[in-house]
Write the structure tokens for this entry.
Amino acid sequence: MPDFLYSVWFSDDAHFLLLSGHMNLRTTSGVAHPPEHCLQKPLHSVKCAAWVAISKHGILGPFWFKDDNERSVTINTEQYVQVLRKFWTALGRRRGVVMVLQWFQQDGATSHSLNESLAWLQQRFPDRLISCRCDPHWSLHSPDLNTPAFYLWEYLKDRVYGNNPQTIPDLKAAIRAIPREECSRVIENFARRIQMCLQCRGAHFFERQ
């Protein structure tokens, strides 16, 4: 595996949905006292947007796109840069990480590739940014090579929903960093996928387990 792959941080975001906001439905017509039982029915589907970065060194995040009232917000450039600042701070605290050797990868979402976001990243990852409108260039449609897309989000969602969280804090508490050894295996799998993609000349491929 090329040495630089050990220092690439692959990033992505995803939404987690949670049924909450229950409405009490009571039948009170014709009765003198409130009923002893009430039926709770889901009224809203609450969601929160999470962002993570994964490398051989482990996972940084999740970081959340939210307002001051803890509500999920639309991911725009301003919100994205705020999350990147949190990531950068966490990266500097990670033991064993040499900052000047780290690479950063992001997909082609609009909030990622606008001038403000790119300028912020290029200042911190000069010549080590893998993205649209950069060199090296990242393909707009590459789920077979995007580490969070082909592995991390499915792992986290299976783990999160398997515990049936009832509130947003429960949901966030259920998302924890996976073992560093697992991250190492994921990056090694990524290296194999690169070889398969080259053999298929960029076409879709199926990885046999």
User: Anything to note?
Assistant: The first strand starts at residue 8 and ends at 25. The domain at 3-25+32-199 is CATH 3.30.420.10 (Nucleotidyltransferase; domain 5). Confidence is low (pLDDT under 50) at residues 20-35, 37-43. The beta strands are 8-25, 39-55, 58-65, 103-105, 129-130.
